[in-house]
């Protein structure tokens, strides 16, 4: 990993911490949340925008139902270059 190519999906307590660490390391390409987080500069409006900008998509969601709902939207957007990481 040599460039900003991680997207964090879910900016609650844990996701926002991950996003800040990736951002500090110069690795955060984008982020998304069901509930907007104005503190994060790179927040995107859609999952599609995150998938377009990042190879690694880290899910930091509340529960299994949240993960399932996001994956249903995300899977059609994935390409062979993507890696999905469920935290």
General description of the model:
- The chain is of the alpha/beta class and 87 residues long.
- The chain is built from three helices and four strands, in the order E-H-E-H-E-H-E.
- The chain has a four-stranded parallel sheet, with helices on both faces.
- Helix 1 links the parallel strand 1 and strand 2.
- It is globular.
- The two termini are 19 Å apart.
Give a concise summary.
By secondary structure, this protein is an alpha/beta fold.
First-to-last CA distance = 19 Å
β content, as a range? Answer: 15-25%
Helicity, as a percent range: 25-40%
**Molecular shape:** globular
Number of helices: 3
What's the total count of β strands?
4
From N to C, what is the helix and strand string?
EHEHEHE
Please outline the helices and strands.
Elements: E1 6-9, H1 13-24, E2 28-32, H2 47-53, E3 56-59, H3 64-74, E4 83-86
Parallel strand pairs: 1-2, 1-3, 3-4
Task: Label this structure with key terms.
4-stranded parallel sheet, globular, 87 residues, alpha/beta, 34% helix, 3 helices
